Amino acid sequence: MSGISPFSNSKQQSQQPPLILVADDDKSVRVFLRKAMEKEGYRVVEVNDGKQCLDAYETIKPDIVLLDAVMPVMDGFTCCKHLFQIAKNKLKSAVETFDTDSTLNNTVISKIWERTPILMITCLDDEESVNLAFDAGATDYVTKPIHWPVLRQRLRRLLKEAQIYKQLEAANQALQHLANVDGLTELANRRRFDDYLNTQWINLVQKESPLSMILCDIDFFKFYNDRYGHPAGDICLQKVGAVLSLKVQKHQDLVARYGGEEFAVIMPYTPASGAVHIAEVIQAGIKDLQIVHDGSVVSQYVTLSMGVATVVPTWESSPLDLIVWADKALYEAKAGGRDRFVSTS
Asked: Collapsing DSSP states into helix, strand and coil, what is residue 329?
């Protein structure tokens, strides 16, 4: 493979000219394309066959791929299919991270190609080859000999469409963030809490694995607001939320602002003993903050009451049952003198 080195900083990459990956076994074609595209200000990376194209694609993350159909080692049609599968796997992984398992259809998968357009360049111009190219996932198709003014316009159009898509995707991600994140603490909000709990419930029913929850309440928080004011109360909530986020151990655990001065932690695959351990760690972390609270009758500092509940989800029960049990345990912790946790399972 020849050309530029990949960049590690994504922000730096976004400020660079478009990066084009050219896969063609004909050196004269690669030289022609490189010179023409570099005059347009594009960055170019060259490879000799489909196998090298796959390796380079994963490394450099190009803005567009120019792919010859007939090459040794791996032809362009096969390479295009592999690129399509890479995109499909990434989307499936993203879906499984934030939602339950789902079957991805070609309509959904095809939208991925708007992010990395595949432009097939080949001497094959029969109907079967054209159909094969688009069936493999190609975005567009041009034939040799290359007519540069035509190819230049195709590149500009595809790159512009890809840029628009990325901007829309970024805007959509920002909206999703706003819809699922509490503006004050930057933790998950109640909507995200509900969605995640339902998703994990279905997940764990199938896997017969435990699901734990901790409901937390800042003790005498109304008195704190009355004594120090709401701006100080907001800072207190932020600090408590940061401790919760820091002390929770596993990547699949979710910390959410449940409402007002209440927080919640959802812990998939966590047994009761593990949930109790996390509650102990959280309690110690809050004490270490030493946020002065003159309005508290149990401590000179801000403290938490917590209810811990664990269940192995079944189709006969529901996520609401876990919330009810955790809430009951929280009530018992408050009734028992606050600044403590109660566990039920």
From this structure: helix
